[in-house]
Amino acid sequence: MDLKEIIDTREDQAPIWIAYPDSTTFQVLVRPIGNMHKEFLEKSREVKWDEAKMEQKVDFNDEIYTKLFSAHVIIDWKGLHIEDLKKLVLLKNFKKLAGFTGEIACDDAAKAMLMQHSLVFNIWINRVCNNIERFNREREEAEKKTS
Q1: Residues 8, 134 contacting (CB under 8 angstroms)
Q2: β-bridge partners, 49
Q3: From CA 48, how far away is CA 12, in angstroms rounded?
Q4: Which of 26, 55, 91, 129 could serve as a FRET partner for 74 with CA atoms 20 to 30 Å apart?
Q5: H-helix or E-strand spanning residue 56
Q6: Is residue 45, in this structure, part of any structural domain at all?
Q7: pTM of the predicted protein model
Q8: Domain that includes residue 142, residue range
Q9: Is residue 76 domain-resident?
Q10: Tens digits of per-residue pLDDT, 55-114?
Q11: CB atoms within 10 A of CB 58
Q12: Is 29 helix (H, G, I), strand (E, B) or coil?
């Protein structure tokens, strides 16, 4: 049997709301990276001129990759409050933020910033993305049983 016949490489796998650990409100709508990983790697390559060796060299731009990755896999979030955020990143002027009770908005810049500045969040998102295929498969099997 050929591996390409076994692995599900669909781009249309359903996203899943996942509750962030150690939070009562923060949830993230995440989907698997699928076949986009290779495309993101290509777009993150930068060709530069190495003057010492007088040749071109290819560098990987982690910031570009993180922006592409986070924009694709994180569809939305809800319930991100200052209390959750202070567990993930260092905050400027925490005393001024202490009275803020609203939610932190989700947009592409916020996604990338959280991924870049919170190793804990970044690792968690990557783990979740790696497990979504399994979650989708289990959900599809459960739907087949109820049909």
Answers
A1: no
A2: 56
A3: 36
A4: 91
A5: strand 55-60
A6: yes
A7: 0.75
A8: 14-82+98-146
A9: yes
A10: 888 888 999 999 999 999 999 999 999 889 989 988 887 777 777 788 999 999 999 999
A11: 8
A12: strand
